Structures are given as C-alpha cells and as structure tokens.
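Q: what sequence does this backbone want?
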C-alpha cells in the first residue's frame, strides 16, 4: 500500500473511545476538529445545542473551570452502522469557580450517555443525557453538608 494513500476513516467505536479517553481525559483539544465535523450539532438536555468544535471547546472549558480534574470512565459502548452509544461515569472534585458555583471541595460522580451519529470518520450529531439537576444540587449545597 502506498504511503500517500489517505488512512481509513475512524469507525464510530474508535470515535467514541477517543472522544472520552483522549479529548476529555487527556484534554487533547487538538483532536476535536479531527473527531468532530465542522458543522456538527451536539444536543444537550434543556434544549441547548452546541455547534461545531468551537462550541464544544467553550462547553468543555466551562465544565473544566468548575471540575478541573474531570475523568470520564467508559462503562459500555454499543455500535450499529454509523451510530455509537457510550455509557459513561464522571468522577471529579468541585475545586473550580464556574457555572455559577463557588468551590465546595466535594467529590462528584454521575452517569450519563452520549449517542453519536458519524459520517466520514467524524461525528456529525450527538445527544447527551445525564443528571445535570443532581450535579447542580450537589454544587449548590454547602461544603459541610
């Protein structure tokens, strides 16, 4: 095979694993445009949509400002055709001042899932579901409660 032939596009499974293991856990933000189409739409709970890599990077920065040590553990992953669904668990400590909350020092943990639709080795649309209300309740409660 010639070296100048373009590498094969990533599979949906590879995209899902790299998104959480590298983009989130390793903070490899330079990979976002490689894994996410320029006009990709990420649908969050509450009707918020994130558009493209720039929108995602702003969202990730807000999360990391509040929970700087966020780690995402992939618990299960299912693929079918151009779709991948990832069930995950986040662990972090609330040490950052962001999202409207002063740091409590509390450990937080929550589960969620992300469903990606992929095309040409990138995700083009995604849906996140996780218990944001429980996270915000934990962040809003006093540190010694």
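A:
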């Amino acid at each position: 095979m010639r070296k100048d032939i373009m590498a094969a596009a990533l599979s949906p499974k590879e995209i899902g694993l790299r998104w959480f293991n590298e983009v989130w856990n390793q903070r490899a933000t330079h990979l976002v445009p490689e894994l996410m189409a320029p006009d990709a739409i990420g649908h969050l709970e509450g009707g918020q949509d994130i558009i493209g890599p720039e929108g995602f990077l702003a969202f990730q920065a807000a999360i990391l400002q509040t929970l700087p040590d966020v780690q995402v553990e992939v618990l299960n992953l299912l693929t079918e055709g151009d779709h991948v669904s990832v069930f995950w668990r986040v662990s972090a400590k609330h040490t950052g001042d962001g999202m409207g909350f002063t740091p409590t020092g509390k450990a937080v943990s929550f589960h969620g899932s992300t469903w990606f639709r992929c095309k040409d080795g990138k995700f083009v649309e995604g849906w996140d579901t996780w218990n944001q209300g429980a996270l915000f309740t934990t962040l809003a409660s006093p540190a010694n409660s």
